[in-house]
Design goal:
The protein contains 16 helices and 14 strands. By secondary structure, the protein is an alpha/beta fold. The protein has two domains: about 240 residues, Alpha/Beta hydrolase fold, catalytic domain (Rossmann fold, 3-Layer(aba) Sandwich), CATH 3.40.50; about 190 residues, no CATH class. The strands form three sheets. Strands 1-2-3-5-4-7-8-12-13-14 form a ten-stranded mixed sheet, sandwiched between helices. A hairpin with a 5-residue loop joins strand 1 and strand 2. The chain is globular and about 75 Å long. The relative contact order is 0.14.
Length: about 500
Amino acid sequence: MASTAAVTKKPRQYANETAIKFTAGNGDSIAAFSGFFMVPENRQRAGSRQLKLHYVRFPAHTDQPGSPVVYLAGGPGGSGIHTAKGPRYPLFTGLGQHADVIALDQRGTGLSADMPNCVSKVVVDVAYVLNMPAQEQQPLDEQKFAALHQQAAQECSQFWQQQGADVLGYTTVQNALDLDDLRQHLGANKLTLWGISYGTHLALAASKIMPERLDKLILASVEGLDQTVKLPEQTSLYLKRVQQLIALDPAQQARWPDIAALMQQVLTQLKREPIQLYLPQADGKTSPFLFQSLHLQLLTSMSLADPNQRLGQLLQLYQGLQAQPEAMKPMLTELISSGIFDGFAAGPIQLRLMPLMTDLASGISPKRQLLFNQQQPSALIGGMLNFPMPQLNGSIPGLDLGEAFRQEASHAIPTLVLSGTLDGRTYLAEQQQAVAGLTAKQLVTVRYGGHNLLESSPQVLTLIQQFLATGKVNQHLIELPVPDLKLSAAQ
């Protein structure tokens, strides 16, 4: 069904824009504009090549629009245009009562990506020696895994440079300066930045670089400027909060009395005795795959972001591996055959230019690196939550943005902060630290909210609309229903 939002007069059209019908994944559609603007790849180099950055603009349906609202996707590497087609579509259209809303594909992402992915010659070998006991196989540990990715990063850096890219241009600072170019392209005095996860990292960087050009900030699931790498200790505290969630149901608590202990036991068991699998191939043959503790740590890191069925399935996998590892082989075979580790932890390592360089450029401060080093050895999932950072920190000369960049922002720009109590990626305590220096902030806590909280409740849109209109909100807590991890299936 098409949106019935009325446009009071013909919307303005900017340079390089084409009128389109934008159709979301659910079939809803709305009139919009597809546009682009040009930016230098690296403003620190004379004669830098130009990048074409694409966006979709949803025109305001008001005669007196506020500053354009620019959506900044997470990742890094996410596409704003792709996001607008998904569950957040109602937010993109709903904010049009206040201003133009821009779904931006940042440099190196989505339609703005003009460099191919790099398929390196570095292979993560997951096969095993036939007829050798599992416990005698050569293990894939974090150190070896990091060394392989280090090698692949060097190879891919050279590959992209041969393709004509300046790899030093893919930083959050250059990304933030693109926003000022977008502002000028739109003829706007100021922008409002709306970001989630890495998008908030970008918005906070922009707030230091060009505070006078920003009207408001809307930050969900905040990642601070020195929080590219999450601290392992915070993951442990998050699992305690998940345990408290399980404890709300006494029957479930009886079945799952200590998930952290369960996970530790299974990971230790896998280190001692990895599981030998045979993956079916297209030619009808099978290939051996040694499922090791590192693979389960990676799988865990992929599944923690939200308190949902995916987290529940992960816990059931752990329980199954504890009780009957042999019986879990068909499930593991199906999971790995789906390609979940391909290009990352199985086969040739594949890398994307923008996500890799952007994370490496944001780096980690010596103080935080020390904390990470202290916490990592005893951490449940080791250093896998943000791999390949900090393992590849400093590996591309001249890329790191330095300590001044990592100093957290402090300003009086009106800022709305939305944080979930069960965010398994950007942890609540860290979010609070990241915005401590923002003096004009409105904090909204989403109880039981995970990392992807923007689509968690209609109240999110209502509060953002209220904030855009007044710079304040009259509600600082959104109560979600108690999440169902779907653990009953494990009875």
